[in-house]
Design a protein that fits this description.
The chain has 238 residues and is α/β, with parallel strands linked by helices. Helix content is 34%, strand content 19%.
Amino acid sequence: MTRISKIKSPRRFVTISTCPEAWGGSEELWSRAVSILAERGHTVSVFKTVVDETHPGIQRLKSLSCKVRDLERIRLPQLGINLLLPTRYQLTPIKKQLLFIALHLKARAPDLVIISQGDNYDGLHFGNLCRKFKLPYILISQKATDHFWPPDKVRKYRRDVFEAAIKCFFVSSHNRSLTEDQIGRRLANAAIVRNPFLVAVDNPLSWPGNEESRLGKADYRQPDREPQRFGKGRPRKT
């Protein structure tokens, strides 16, 4: 195992994950990155939707003294406030999350905010918050949807949030180019970063052996996702 040395001047990092699942490829990506930061002595705070306290990834973050908060379990006096406010000003779940994170960002003034999105737009409101606070942030986009295009009235807002980021990371070239088409701008701050996967690639698989094998392949596609391929399809008779 590579030894990670501590740094003399620790910095503050905040990670916000909007992926609506307990754990997946996006969590593997940002959690591995912030784990290295925590091991080096930096301070890391994590805000995530759907936190499974028993998941090894969450437990590892906590073992490194990372504070992990569930965005869906934020406690604010929402009911009392909403009774006093007009409907359009009432605290919705998104507004409650924004308020909670705004208070944290103001109090902590992090050196960098990492925003990991389940797709390419669901975390932009947090990016816009950082932009208003003049805090440096990066965006990670996990997918882009061909059949969904932003309305004209929000295209500039989304473009501004992407362009104000220090870096916009996409997990595939298709996601990047499609997002650029949707916002009507080529992003000079964009880069491709691949999600990690849990299979060793430095050596050949130990299976199959010398026996004859017949494999089938099923191609499963959803309109809003990259193609998913599974290797246990039934072989076709010849």
